[in-house]
Design brief:
Blueprint lengths: L1 H31 L18 H16 L2 H9 L8 H18 L2 E13 L2 E10 L4 E8 L6 E8 L2 H8 L8
Helix pairs in contact: 2-3, 3-4
């Protein structure tokens, strides 16, 4: 019986020792945990419109809606005195007007992206919504001194092809 009692006491001592070690280890872990600061969101900062350039774009679209393609194109190209190729601008207006007649009435615009290369160069890309299909307009404005001027203007209707390409695995057809 004495041997059984000693064995029982030994097991009791072993279990108590294990419990004490576990409690001490847990307390040590709690003390070692350093409070981490709250994780900051990695969202993009809001797009900050460049005042003068944004005003030019807004006026362009107002003219595009109310006065038509020709007035809008004349306005935007008129911001830069160095665009003197009137034949090229006339051809651009004719092509854009022809495209516009095929895509239906103007319904509005959505900003796709705005990028600032510096305080003097800014890029805007817009999805221009029409009844039948969208057109993309891209504007690049340059501020050589005090005023923003048009630096580049493009339009196209190929966003659907770009989106399809972006959705391909390793740029391969399914």
């Amino acid at each position: 019986m004495k041997r059984l009692n000693t064995k029982h006491n030994l097991i009791r001592l072993l279990v108590t020792g294990i419990l004490c070690c576990c409690a001490a280890f847990a307390n040590a872990q709690d003390a070692a945990i350093v409070q981490k600061p709250a994780a900051t969101a990695t969202t993009k900062p809001p797009v900050v419109a460049v005042k003068g350039a944004a005003d030019l774009v807004n006026t362009f679209f107002k003219k595009y809606k109310e006065e038509g393609t020709s007035a809008a194109v004349d306005y935007i190209f008129g911001t830069n005195k160095y665009f003197t190729n009137t034949a090229g601008i006339t051809q651009l207006k004719a092509k854009l007007d022809s495209l516009r007649q095929g895509v239906g009435n103007y319904l509005g615009k959505d900003l796709i992206v705005q990028k600032n290369a510096s305080n003097s160069l800014v890029f805007y890309s817009y999805l221009v919504k029409h009844e039948i299909q969208p057109i993309r307009f891209t504007f690049m404005f340059y501020k050589p001194q005090n005023d923003w001027v048009l630096y580049r203007f493009k339009y196209d209707d190929q966003m659907d092809a770009e989106l399809e390409d972006a959705g391909k695995i390793n740029n391969k057809h399914p």
